[in-house]
Amino acid sequence: MRHTFLYEPGVWTLSGMFWSGDGRGIAVDGRTEISHGKDCWMLAGRMRVLASPPAEFVNIYTFEAPGRDALASKWSSENSMLGKLHGVFTVVGPCILSLYRSEQGGYQGTEHLRQIAPDQYDATGVLLMDDRRLSSWQVTLTR
Question: Fold for domain 10-142?
Answer without folding.
Answer: Lipocalin (2.40.128)
